[in-house]
Every structure is written in C-alpha cells, then in structure tokens.
C-alpha cells in the first residue's frame, strides 16, 4: 500500500493519519479537509470559545511542528465531491482526482437546519465566532433544541448575561438519551438560573425577529441558535456503491468496502460489545475509531473488531456530566452512588440483563471507573447493581 | 523522552489513565496528573496511545 487518502481533517481523520505513520506506513498520505484550517478541536467551541475564555489558537489539535512531522499531502479548504470505488479514485471540488490504495472516510456531520431565515448553528470555529460576537449582555437568545449542545450553549449565554429561552420538542430534555430523572435534574439547573425552558413545543420556522412555533406563536429573539442534531456528510458518496444509511455503513472492523474504512461521526459500524450497529458523535470516539480504522486498513489480516465503550462529557453551569456506554434504548435507570438531589451521583443504565451505561455528575474518577469496567466486561445487572438501590423509571 | 501535560486543557476524561496508568493518574476532580515526566522505552507506546486518545490534545512528547 503506497497511497492512502484520508477524507476529513478533524479529530478522526487526524487520528487515522497519525496512527498510519505510527504503525510504520511511509507511503503518500493525503489528508483532505473542506475547512481551510489545520485540524482543530470542536468540544471547546460550545464551552470555552463561546464564553470568550479561549482564543481560537488554543484549539489546534497539533502544533505546526508535529503536523509537519507527519509528512502529509495536506489539502485544506477543498471538499471531496465523489468516490469511484472501481478505479479507486477520490474526486475533489477543485477538479483533482486522487488515486488511492487505501481510503479512510471521516467527513463528519453538519448541523440540521430549520426552514425560514438563516439562524446560528454550532459546528465550526466560524459558526461560534459569529455567535459569540452577538452575545452581549441583555440580548435575547432563543436556542432551539435542549440536547447537550443546546444546553451547553444556553449555559454559556446565560453566564454572558444574555436572556436565554430554550425550546425543546420533547416533554423532558434528553430523556431519550439519559432517562427522565437525569433529564429533569439537568432541566432544574436551567430553571434555577432563570433560563426559560419550554418543552413540548416544536418550531416551524426561523423568522426575521425570532422563531415561529407550529401553533403559530412567535417567540421573539435577537439571535436564534438551532441545535437540533446533525446529518452525516455522505452526499459525496452517492452512487459510489458504498452503503449509506444514516452514516457510512461498516462492519465491526470499520470496513465499508475492500480497502475502504470509515471513522468518527460519519461512521455507522457494528459494535460487537453491545451487539448493535451505532453511529457515535463523541469526541473520544472520533480519535479511537480513527486509530482503529487506520490499523485495520494497514493490517487486514490481523484486523481487530472495534468494540469501544463510548464516552462523552458535557459542561453545563457548574456541572460536569460524564457518561460511559450506550445509553440509548435503556430499560431501567438506578442511582448507584451519591445523591441526585445534591448533584453528586452515578446512575447506571440497564439494557436487557446487562449494565449498558453509566452517567456521573460531580463524582471522583474512581467512582466512575468501576462502572466503565462493568460496561466493558458486559457485567450482569443483577450481579452488579445492588437490588437495594432505588430504581427510577426510565 | 519527556511528557508534557497541559492540565488547564484537560477535560477529565481519564483516557490517558486507561492507556498508560503508570504514567498518568487523575485528581479528585478528574484532572490528569503526571506520575512520571521522563518515560522510558517500555512506556513510550502507551504514552503515544494516550496522546492519540486524549480528547483535549493536552499531552505532548518532547525529545530531549
């Protein structure tokens, strides 16, 4: 293998490129990114960067020296527009055709938008700088979507002295992801601070001076941030022959086709640890999957299934939320340590007869690690969770 | 080789401890701590793994 192309120059693509070099690959290594910037980190965008605490220089994932050490054929500011599987070529927006022996697809996701006037989204550095400039004290911000991204942005905007209204279609924010109890606890953190939260409302469109709800009501705002999830960037693969279905569909080795792998937010792969196919939009997964895809591309004969315990964190007000495992579709939630009322606790999630996930707020690392271990080993619920633990409905 | 850790970038994920528990630990808030600044060849691969999985790009290796 002498020519490898990695499409996508964010966390997953960079991790893949670094791993290829670490594993001794010394052929041509092309890294393609549609943004003009060298690989940068996204989680701080809705946190320290939006808050104005960090300047954008701090986001660089690697410094210039480390990046140069990778000896990349770096193509920034140019999107991939097509893939020919049969003659193994990636087409770029500038007309270039890149032949490859191996390909890693790491093109990530983009924000979903709403009908009507253009509104703020949070995905790129440019997005956040534009929003930050507008968030001056006393202004009114409507955030559509009270998921993790929307909640983080709401918390930061509140700290900046902005009047924040959060609009959420579900009855309890994040209930589908973390359960009703945890969702309600997170809700209280907003309400205590005077952030207005309206649940069970759906937004029809963004207007000149706010958003219009499905029932016709106008919610006025100076700025509107839309945080209603994302869409995988797979259009450039249309007609390529790769299977696309809410992401690039891969097997447990992250392989989408012979010599073609996918990693990061765009990849839907079969995770054997949980026995299900999943697509994970978490920062840590991007790096881990980029590494796994790179190794399996170089050494298919020694391929290893990618079976991680997903992990994410979220900072909201003074709370750090950390979660391990696959929480979606859980059957039961139980407080297993600490006290939810004090916002220092660990909850465990049961899926079938197993411990499928755990979420902690304000707990020391040791209290969380044992639950990660339980998830990684597929521990049985009834042998791990004390039956005296107060069960809460999911 | 010397390990450098930017603690104020750390997001307390603990990924470094999972990758190289002889070099990294976490304080009670989860922030990473260096147990050893100088790493020998036996720990080099683990530290490189920690650098790669760190979700905050907070770890570096510097040649001396």
Tell me what the structure shows.
The complex is a heterodimer of chains A (394) and B (64). Chain A is α/β, with parallel strands linked by helices and 394 residues long. Chain A has three domains: 3-110 and 230-302, 3-Layer(bba) Sandwich (FAD/NAD(P)-binding domain), CATH 3.50.50.60; 113-226, FAD/NAD(P)-binding domain, CATH 3.50.50.60; 318-392, Enolase-like, domain 1. In chain A, 22% of the residues lie in helices and 31% in strands. Chain A is built from nine helices and 27 strands. Chain A has helices at residues 11-22, 64-68, 125-134, 148-159, 175-178, 180-192, 283-298, 365-376, 381-384, and strands at residues 3-7, 28-33, 73-76, 80-84, 89-92, 97-99, 102-105, 109-111, 140-144, 163-168, 196-199, 203-207, 210-213, 218-220, 223-226, 230-232, 248-249, 255-257, 260-262, 267-271, 276-278, 311-316, 319-325, 332-339, 344-351, 354-361, 391-392. In chain A, the strands form seven sheets. A six-stranded mixed sheet of chain A has the order 3-2-1-7-19-18, with helices on one face. In chain A, strand 9 (140-144), helix 4 and strand 10 (163-168) form a beta-alpha-beta unit. The radius of gyration of chain A is 22 Å and the shape is globular. Chain B is α+β, with helices and mostly antiparallel strands and 64 residues long. Chain B has a single domain (2-62), classed as Alpha-Beta Plaits (2-Layer Sandwich), CATH 3.30.70. Helix content of chain B is 28%, strand content 22%. In chain B, the strands form two sheets. Chain B has a two-stranded antiparallel ribbon with strand order 1-4. In chain B, strand 2 (24-26) and strand 3 form a beta hairpin. Chain B is globular. Chain B starts with a strand and ends with a strand. The mean pLDDT of chain B is 94. Chains A and B meet through helix 1, helix 7 and helix 8 of A and helix 2 of B. Chain B: GO terms for molecular function: 3 iron, 4 sulfur cluster binding; metal ion binding. Chain B: Its cofactor is [3Fe-4S] cluster. Chain B: It comes from Streptomyces guryensis.
């Amino acid at each position: 293998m002498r020519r490898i192309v990695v499409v996508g120059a964010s966390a997953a693509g960079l991790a893949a490129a670094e791993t290829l070099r670490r594993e001794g690959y010394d052929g041509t290594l092309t890294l393609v990114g549609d943004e003009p910037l060298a690989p940068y980190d996204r989680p701080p965008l809705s946190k320290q960067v939006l808050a104005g605490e960090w300047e954008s220089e701090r986001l660089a994932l690697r410094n210039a020296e480390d990046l140069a050490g990778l000896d990349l054929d770096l193509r920034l500011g140019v999107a991939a527009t097509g893939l020919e599987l049969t003659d193994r070529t990636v087409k770029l927006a500038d007309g270039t055709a890149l032949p490859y022996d191996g390909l890693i697809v790491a093109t990530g996701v983009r924000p979903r938008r709403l009908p009507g006037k253009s509104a703020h989204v949070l995905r790129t550095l440019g997005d956040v700088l534009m929003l930050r400039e507008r968030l001056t004290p006393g202004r009114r911000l409507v955030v559509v979507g009270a998921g993790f991204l929307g909640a983080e942005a709401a918390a930061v905007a509140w700290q900046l002295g902005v009047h924040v209204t959060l609009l959420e279609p579900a009855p309890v924010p994040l209930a589908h992801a973390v359960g009703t109890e945890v969702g309600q606890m997170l809700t209280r953190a907003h309400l205590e601070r005077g952030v207005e939260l309206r649940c069970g409302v759906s937004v029809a469109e963004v207007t000149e001076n706010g958003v219009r709800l499905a029932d016709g009501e106008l919610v006025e705002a100076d700025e509107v941030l839309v945080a209603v999830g994302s869409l995988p960037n797979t259009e450039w693969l249309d007609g390529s022959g790769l299977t696309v279905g809410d992401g690039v569909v891969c097997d447990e080795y992250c392989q989408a086709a012979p010599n073609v792998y996918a990693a990061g937010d765009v990849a839907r792969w079969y995770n054997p640890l949980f026995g299900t196919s999943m697509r994970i939009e978490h920062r840590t997964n991007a790096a881990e999957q980029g590494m796994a895809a790179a190794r399996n591309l170089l050494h298919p004969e020694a391929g290893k299934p990618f079976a991680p315990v997903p992990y994410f964190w979220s900072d909201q007000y003074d709370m750090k939320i950390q979660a391990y495992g696959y929480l979606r579709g859980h059957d039961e939630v139980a407080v297993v340590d600490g006290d939810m009322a004090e916002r220092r606790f660990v909850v465990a999630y049961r899926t079938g007869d197993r411990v499928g996930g755990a979420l902690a707020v304000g707990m020391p690392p040791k209290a969380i690690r044992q639950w990660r271990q339980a998830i990684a080993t597929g521990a049985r619920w009834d042998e791990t969770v004390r039956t005296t633990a107060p069960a809460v409905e999911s | 080789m010397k390990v450098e850790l930017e603690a104020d970038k750390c997001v307390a994920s603990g990924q470094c401890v999972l990758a190289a528990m002889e070099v990294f630990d976490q304080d009670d808030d989860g922030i990473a701590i260096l147990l050893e600044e100088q790493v020998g060849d036996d720990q080099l691969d683990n530290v490189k793994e920690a650098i790669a999985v760190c979700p905050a790009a907070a770890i570096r290796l510097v040649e001396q």
